[in-house]
Amino acid sequence: MLIALGAIVLLFYIFTGIYTDYLWYESVNYTTVFSTVVWTQVLLFAVGALLMVGIVGGNMLLAYRIRPRFGIGMFGSASGADRYRMAVDPHRKVIFLIGMGLLALFAGSSTAGQWRTWLPFFNRTPFGVRDPQFDLDVSFFMFTLPFIRMLLNFLFTAVILSIIAAAIVHYLYGGFRLGQPGGVHATRGARAHLSALLGVFVLLKAVAYWVDRYDLAFSERGFVHGPSYTDVNAVLPAKTILAIIALLCAALFFAGVVRPGGMLPGVAFGLLVLSAVLIGGVYPALVEQFQVKPNQQAMEAPYIQRNIEATRKAYGVEDAQVEEYNAVTNAAQAKAQEDDTVPGVRLLDPSLISSSYQRWQGFRDYYQFPVKLDIDRYTINGVETDTVVAVREVKAPETNNWINRHLVYTHGYGMVAAPGNKVSDEGNPDFVEANIPPSNALGTYEPRIYFGENSPEYSVVGGGKIELDYVDDTNRQVSTQYTGKGGVPIGSFFNRLLYAAKYNEPNFILSGAINEKSKILYIRNPRERVQQVAPFLTLDGDPYPAIVGGRILWIIDGYTISNAYPYSQSNSLRDMTRDTSTEAHRVVGQPADRINYIRNSVKATVDAYDGTVTLYAWDDSDPLLRTWQKAFGGDIIKPRSEISPELKAHLRYPTDLFKVQREILSKYHVTEAQAFFSNTNVWNVPDDPNAKGIRQPPYYVTLRMPGSDKPTFSLTSTFTKGEAQLAAFMAVEATTEDANARIRILQLPAGSPIQGPVQVQTNFKAAIANDPTFQRSGSTEPIFGNLLTLPYRGGLLYVQPIYVQVKDAVKQYPVLTRVMVMFGSGQVGHGRTLEEALQQVFGRSDAQGERSESETREETATERTAVADAADKVKKAYEDAQEAFKAGDWAKYGEAQKALSEAIKEMEEAVRRAESAPSPSPSPTTSPEPAESPSPSPSPTASPEGSPPPGA
Asked: pTM of the prediction?
């Protein structure tokens, strides 16, 4: 009874897992993915189980059928086998059925797990590219060869298990005896049966030797991956010879079926082992040692060239353009014209300023921002600007009961954005999109975030207006009710029972707050949602939000990857994408899978309000993507033509793909085999100056490449020779509509004095070692932001923001204090703004240099007057505050304090202008910009208790 009850409970939980998965896929309209995977697994399970049971069970039945008809002591005396037989024989049917059931379960499960091999094989798409060795389409290696390997492994397993099982049956029922005088004694039937099985095994081995010839496309024997000289001229013919020998040996084993004695099988076994050692092992080793190694460069050159061409094509870098860049190294020799990319240089480091966003835009303890913010671009005041964006997500409240966690605090609220190239006077982000309710400076949109990177595991919504929306200006809680189309209905008792079992939570059944309109939202992380509906994709580790069509959409890049592209160099995906952003867990790291082919084939979006997942075919020429489309039905991925212009404006070149291509191009920028073999022009991806031993991540920045007529939003990185010398600069236009965007590499001359990032930051530290700013701030050390590199005035310019950590009544947050620049061979400048830093290196602009002496004197007098006026305002505000304090008029006191704060800031600014008159612009730009409207700031009622709004 207890066993039956336990079985019922187990089956119910299995059903719950499967059925709730179906309900989730139904809620996102991707049931075809669910049904395709499930029915494929069921089919493979059934085929694998039946074949395995048929082969192994059939051989066991055959062994039983040809058992000798005499009983105990057939070879003279009773043995242990007779005792075992007497114990087993009365229960043989039950034992056989149980054994076959377990075998079917394990074999079926293993085969069902191979659906990722079967579906591509069954729906394979030609590449239209033939490999140089076997003249076969690449699709054979990508789709057919893995399936053949899977089938061979299954058959080898079945035959080996059949041999073991048949031998056991023959032993139990007297087919042969061990330990008798004269050795092993076997009946004719047992000997014939086992000889036939061994013959089948050797026949499979012959097939395996023949298939091994094609596996040489991935050989790692030579200088690079792919068939080497030894593989082509020794191993390949050896595999062919071994296949023929294995066929002959199989024939000898089959001959043992009709010819008594063990001579033929023994000869076959000895010949097989000897040929495998001599032909398969010794001969290739001799060729490698005495032919290849003495003249390896010449011998391997044709095969290295094949590897170079295949690797560059497989990683999508065959069109990467390497240009000689004779970078100017002295500011005095730099081109005189002003470079209009400087205003777009991003000064805010998205990896550092999360706490600043939390300080000024967090408002409540139950809101949070991600550790790493994102970079996008928006048109601000008519200019397309690099913008640091983030969404305000919800986190578990302090009152942490089930109702609060899952029914009240269900969603975050609003997008927050600040231009990357400017800050407020205090060094804080200058928000353009902010506040609750949102300012809508970037357009009107639905601000509620039900699906985000840090959303709760699940929320129950839609059952009533009990969800916390936000707190208004009067500190009144505003509630809302979810009305989106996403989510699984749980109004019925049956569905509530299922989810009570799924989450082991009885409140699904007991709570009166759940009614017929209620829905449950789960699998809410955008990356996880896309992975569920597109299990054939590998996803970029850094999804980012964008306002598109009045909604907040998460944008995720999807890759099709493989490790089966012939001749291409195989590498670990995790190692190629590892840098400080993944090591600090700011973005999701990639798996350790080895790959030798990658395409950014899909752009995916997830609606932050209702969770709608949409897939677009970005690289619709990718045969791997087209194969998966055929497998799952073409309608799950929309054509590229359906991407709206507004969404397309926010798509960008993906980070992980760029990191993979950067790793490949560190070696494969060399395209000539002889030079590649010499290994003298290998580049290194530099370490992050702030994290020794870990690579520097690539950076999004707006720049103008040499020869381009306008600045573009680009993804950039650098290469070094060792760590000391900069070797090259790499960039790709991040906004390109071409799925295979052109990569440009500016290669510096050998011996260039331009330093690498680590040395540059060392120079920066030395330049500000005695700067009193950091001591006045109370910070023991400056916090160095991302070190950007960009072409500028015919050379290369390094730009790095420096922060100090400020602590107030709420929390610590970084404040931008200095901007460091270095041009060429080591000319360093720093200032409060980028313009000030550049002026230290290049001098003042011509317009400033042409000021007359009288104009300068007049401006200086004006600045001094402004200082005096500001001091008077400070004095008056202070006196007003003291009077209000004595009178107990707290409203007037608050107004006076605010006026005092503003007056102090005004005086500080006036003093700074007077000290540096004629003054530079306070904005970190080098060219006039359109007049800006004041950026919205949080209302005092929405700020954290006891803390003023920004600038107060």
From this structure: 0.86
